[in-house]
Every structure is written in C-alpha cells, then in structure tokens.
From TrEMBL, chain A:
This is Exosome complex exonuclease rrp4. Residues 183-223 form the K Homology domain. Residues 89-160 form the RRP4 S1 domain. One of its GO terms (molecular function) is RNA binding. It is found in: Nucleus. Its main location: nucleus. The keyword Protein biosynthesis does not apply. It comes from Lentinula edodes (Shiitake mushroom). One of its GO terms (cellular component) is nuclear exosome (RNase complex). It comes from the Eukaryota. The lineage of its organism: Eukaryota, Fungi, Dikarya, Basidiomycota, Agaricomycotina.
TrEMBL record, chain B:
Gene3D superfamilies: GHMP Kinase, N-terminal domain. It is found in: Cytoplasm; Nucleus, Nucleolus. InterPro entries: ExoRNase_PH_dom1, ExoRNase_PH_dom2_sf, Exosome_comp_Rrp42_subfam, PNPase/RNase_PH_dom_sf, Ribosomal_Su5_D2-typ_SF. Belongs to the RNase PH family. This is Ribosomal RNA-processing protein 42. GO terms for cellular component: cytoplasmic exosome (RNase complex); nuclear exosome (RNase complex); nucleolus; ribosome. One of its GO terms (biological process) is nuclear mRNA surveillance. Residues 33-175 form the Exoribonuclease phosphorolytic domain. It holds the Pfam family RNase_PH. It comes from the Eukaryota.
C-alpha cells in the first residue's frame, strides 16, 4: 500500500557516456543564421556578435555577444535574433482553440485562466445567450452572469482578438464551444499540442478529447453527434448545465487510462496527436497491468519506446 | 482553503467516481492507495539531520507531486526557567509562494501558521521528547529547531509533512558533549582558574560533580554524534478524506476540493504492537457521528502502522546507503 522510493541519483558518468569523442565542442557553426536553419540552444550559450545582429526575446547582450537566456529554438528575422523557449506559457494567436477556467466574474465580462501570461477575457457579448444566438444582451443577463459561468468553471473557447496589453479575448459563439462536463482536465506543456485540423477528437474507446492549444486538455465521455446540446435549437439550460450524465464504469476507466497516457507522453515531450494517442491506447490495452500501473517507470518506458518506434 | 478552484461538474465527476462500486479515481488508484513516496535523507549538509520527501511526483521528468524539505538544526540554549530542563523542540513550517500561486500573502501566512501549529503541538509533546537533549542540567540544553519547507503542493500536505519530519528527526545526530568545570583556585597555587575536564567514566550518582559544571566542550569524534533517543517513537499521520460513509487516502488537490471534510489522525508506533494516538484533527465543515469516528480512528491505526513500518525500512536503507557511500569515499581517498 505504501511504496517508498529513492530520488533518482544522477549517474556520475552520465554526460561523458553520451558525447562521442570526435565532436568538437567549440565548433563555430552559424548555420542557423541562414534561412531555414535550425538550432537548439541553452541558457548562457553565446549565439552571435551583437554588432551584426539585434537581440530579441530570450536573449541578452554580454561582452558584445548575443547570449541565449532560455533553452529553445533559435529564430532569426532579418537582423533580429530570438530564442523560442521550450518550456513557456502559452502564446495565443487569433483563431486558436483553448480550454480555460473562470477565475473571476466582473461587470459584463469573465476573467479566464488560459495558461497564458495574463488572464484572458470573455465578454458577456461573446457568449451565446439563452433565447437565440443573435440577440442583444440585456441588463438581466448582466445580473445573472453566474448562471452562465461561475468561478472555477471550465470552458472551451476560441481566441477572438487581442487587447492593447496583449490580453486575449475569447468567444464561445459556436455550438461546439461552451461549458465542459463529464470528464477531467489534464495539463501538458503548451508546446506539445500541435495545430491540427480539428482539436475535437473522438477516440473509439468512448472518450472525447479537446486538445486546447494552451496545453489544457479535456478528457470526457463521448457524446454522440446527434445528442449534442443545441443541435437543433440552442438550449441554454443544457449548455450551461453543471450536471454530469451517468458515466459507466468502463468509460470512467477509459478516461483515466487516456489521462495517464497523456501524462506519460507529455513527460517525455512527445507531441500529442490523435494517431499517437490511439496507438498508445491500443498498446496499453494489451498490457497486463491496471490503469494506475501505467504510471510506473518501466511501463511508461515501454510505452514511449513503442510509440517512438512507430514513428 | 488550499484547494484549487474546481468546477461543479468536475467535483461531481470525482464524487460520483469515488462512490461507484468499484470506486474509480482520476489516476486509476483504489481508495486506499497512496501515490509513490520518494524519500532521501541527509540532503542538507549543514543541518544535524535532514530529509527531502515527495509524494506522487512524475518519475519521468520529476514534475508534479507534493514536495517537502525538512531540516533539523540544534542550537545551544541557556536555561533560565527550571521547567525547560532537558531541551525543547520548536517546529516551523514555511510554504513557498510558488507552491501556492493562487494564495495571497496573508492567506499564505495563515496556512503556514495552521500547519506549524499542528506539527508543533504534536511533535513537541512530552511523551515524544527525546531524553538526550540536555547538556548541563539546569544550565544548558539543546534547542531542536525543526524547519519544514513546502516547495510544491499536489495534495495530502499533512501526511507529507509528518513523514518528512519523521525522516529528518530519524536522521538527526546530537553532538557529543563533555561538561567542563572550573576548579576554585587553591591558595598555594598561583592559580588563575586552571581548567579541568571531567572524564566519561564518572559515576552517574556523582551529582555534585555535575552541579558545578558551568560549560561544555565538543569532543572531536569520528561521527557527527549520537542519534536522538527514542527515534522509533516519532509519529506518522494519515489524512482520511471523508465522503459520506466512504473514506479515501492521499487525495490530490482536485479530490481535496471535492470532499467536504478530512480527518487527520497521528499515531506513534514505537514497536509493531505498541501504539499511541498522538493527535487528531477534524478539518472541514462536515459533522461526524461518534461511532463512525471510532471506526475511522481504528482504521487509521492500520494505515499508520503499515506506513510507519515501510518508512522505517526505507530510513534504514537510507542510513545504509549513506554509510556505504561515506565508506567508499573514504576508501577512495586512501
């Protein structure tokens, strides 16, 4: 029942083993300055001379040299050198699909935590209101904003625009957006969610996934296409409901399994796509262990090896 | 209080999962399963004993999980009141703001104070007091400072704190001391306070000898001192998260947010058969009937017993590992 383990001891010879001897560490290649060149960097690495280039985000100037301040990918636009960090908060772009959590209800707007640098804003005018999609908002709507979304609620939305200070403004004016129910949230680094054709994924195991580009992933019970709320007419009661449907045992297991798989893949920095998740799910079904055993080190190692082998 | 914000739908999803049969939790654990506990002792070289503990961290990238650092520092204290004879214990818990990003600094202070109170009241109880914290009776003693730092929180903070505290106290070495006495200058000696050091062979009945001791010295010895007396007694805690009639252990933050009350029970297991309840606390707003409470306390004993047994085994392993390492280092140097 109680399992005590040791923290991983760093092996003394770890780094020595992995470096081939004939590599010249001081090699001064500046290929990344060519168009299309790719280079990974780490904090403190000097990139180029500050006299020829300008420093951008993720860099600083020291001793007339542009030095990286984060680890990530070096990018160059004309004379501007920037480093795009591997671990970072979400950088929103208009049209992105995000999953967020309401943090605050304010006059005519909600504040939404979207894993970005600032809280996002969801205006009352950018949600679907009861009684029809195209309707002017009324004072009564302002007074009952908490009946739509209240603090802690999860929602799926689209980035609509930016405010002057870079805050993103969201909208849920589509029938596929809105409040989230029947499942659980799992968080991954935003960089691991790629832009896909659709971010609503249905796995054949009865699980729906919403891959938010901000790294929030909603794993929930599959709802049949024709049973979705507001399919024929917009039904505010159903869309803003807090009540879960009945979820049977196998679906619950499947949701937990998918969640654990996402956690494992994310901790190994494997980008999440529907095919990878499907492969991983099929693999995990063939294994003997329970859902919780997936998180054990050897099981997750085996999973990652299998996934990487499939390419 | 510390709970993450959670939507009503998530809450009812978690509750429904816990109440179905068989119960289902978010990560596939059963109700009484703990996440893996990572433990290492001797992490702070300048302390007299230290430990680092993490519950439920991701083994692949080390992210997530509740992480606690505990360290013991002994400090010499002059005794002014007679009651303080034999040393004292002071516990302090601090929480890193990065572990609780959603809390304001005022709320964080409150939380630290709450955690400190629970820990201090339990661990400084006379029944647990180690007997070797005195230096010179009625004059000097050791003040044992136990500091705990919460660097990350992912639920079940009380259990983690008590486990880390037990590990750090287990690891604590009390420096050996020798009393020093100033003999009054003899008339025929041209004496200016010639110092005499008493020997370890002195009789325990020779109280006269001790009464004159005014100071002490630290003899140079090959190890850092002796272990705290009665280190098997240090208690372990288990938090029972209550949901209707069911209870579950080692809740994540989301699970903590979705159950109304928790029962913290602290047991000391000196030997596999002898146990005493050291402290008990009800956290949350729900009421609990006496028969139900009795049942829970009894069940908690079982959990803490197996927890204490596994922890002791792990701590002995750690002692062995570090001795082995020290010996190898010593051998290499020769």
């Amino acid at each position: 029942m109680f399992e005590f383990k040791s923290f991983q001891q760093p092996a003394d010879d770890h780094f020595v083993k992995n470096v081939p001897e004939d590599i010249d560490m001081d090699e001064d290649d500046e290929d990344f300055l060519e168009t299309g060149g790719m280079k990974l960097t780490w904090p403190g690495e000097s990139l180029t001379s500050s006299q020829d280039y300008m420093r951008g985000h993720g860099t600083y100037v020291d001793n007339e040299e542009v030095v990286a301040s984060v680890s990530g990918l070096v990018e160059r636009v004309n004379k501007l050198i920037t480093v795009r960090a591997v671990r970072t908060r979400y950088n929103p772009e208009v049209g992105d699909l995000v999953v967020g959590r309401i943090t605050e209800v304010q006059p005519r707007r909600w504040k939404v935590d979207g894993n970005s640098r600032q809280d996002a804003v969801l205006m009352l005018s950018s949600v679907n209101l009861p009684g029809g999609v195209q309707r002017r908002k009324l004072e009564s709507d302002e007074l009952q904003m908490r009946t739509f979304f209240e603090e802690g609620d999860l929602l799926v939305a689209e980035v609509q625009a930016f405010f002057g200070d870079g805050t993103m403004s969201l909208h849920t004016r589509s029938l596929s957006y809105g409040k989230l129910r029947n499942g659980q949230l799992v968080t991954v680094p935003p960089i691991l969610v790629r832009r896909l054709k659709s971010h609503f994924i249905s796995l054949p195991c009865g699980v729906d996934l919403i891959l938010g580009l901000n790294g929030y992933i909603w794993v929930s019970k599959h709802v049949k296409e024709n049973e979705r709320e507001g399919e024929e007419a917009f039904d505010a009661e159903a869309v803003y409901s807090n009540r879960n449907d009945d979820i049977d045992d196998s679906t619950r297991m499947a949701i937990s399994r998918v969640t654990n798989l996402i956690i494992i893949l994310a901790s190994r920095s494997i980008p999440l796509t529907d095919t990878i998740l499907l492969d991983a799910y099929d693999w995990s079904l063939e294994q003997e262990g329970d859902v919780k055993d997936l998180l054990q080190e050897d099981a997750s190692d085996a999973l990652v090896t299998t996934i990487l082998a499939k390419g | 209080m510390t709970s993450a914000s959670i939507s009503k739908a998530e809450k009812s999803y978690i509750q429904a999962g816990l109440l179905t049969s068989p119960p289902r939790r978010a990560d596939g654990r059963s109700l009484h399963d703990f996440r893996a506990i990572y433990l290492e002792t001797g992490v702070a070289p300048l302390s007299n004993g230290s430990a680092r503990l993490s519950i439920g961290r991701n083994p692949l990238d080390g992210s997530g999980g509740t992480e606690v650092l505990a360290a013991v520092k002994l400090e010499v204290e002059n005794i002014e009141e007679q009651t303080l004879d034999g040393g004292r214990i002071a516990c302090n818990v601090s929480c890193s703001p990065s572990a609780y990003p959603h809390l304001s600094s005022g709320a964080l202070d409150d939380l630290q104070h709450d955690l400190t109170t629970v820990l201090h009241q339990t661990l400084s109880h006379p029944s647990l007091h180690p007997k070797n914290l005195g230096i010179i009776p009625r004059k000097k003693s050791w003040l044992l400072n136990l500091d705990l730092l919460v660097t990350a929180e992912a639920g079940n903070i009380y259990d983690a704190l008590f486990l880390a505290a037990r590990a750090a106290l287990w690891d604590t070495k009390v420096p050996r001391t020798r009393s020093v006495e100033y003999k009054s200058p003899k008339t025929f000696l041209s004496a200016s306070g010639d110092m005499d050091v008493d020997q370890d062979t002195r009789s325990g009945f020779d109280t006269r000898h001790v009464a004159h001791a005014t100071d002490f010295e630290l003899p140079d010895y090959w190890d850092e001192g002796e272990i705290l007396e009665g280190r098997e007694r240090w208690p372990v805690a288990v938090t029972l998260n209550l949901l209707h009639t069911a209870h579950f252990l080692d809740a994540t933050l989301q699970e903590e947010a979705s159950c109304a009350s928790r029962l913290l029970v602290v047991y000391s297991h000196e030997s596999p058969t002898a146990y005493t309840i050291q402290s008990m606390r009800m956290l949350g707003s729900d009421e609990l009937s006496i028969p139900h409470l009795k049942k829970l306390i009894k069940e908690a004993e079982g959990y803490t017993r197996s927890m204490a047994t596994s922890l002791t085994t792990k701590l002995e392993d750690e002692d062995f590992r570090r001795n082995q390492k020290a010996r190898e280092k010593f051998g290499r140097r020769k």
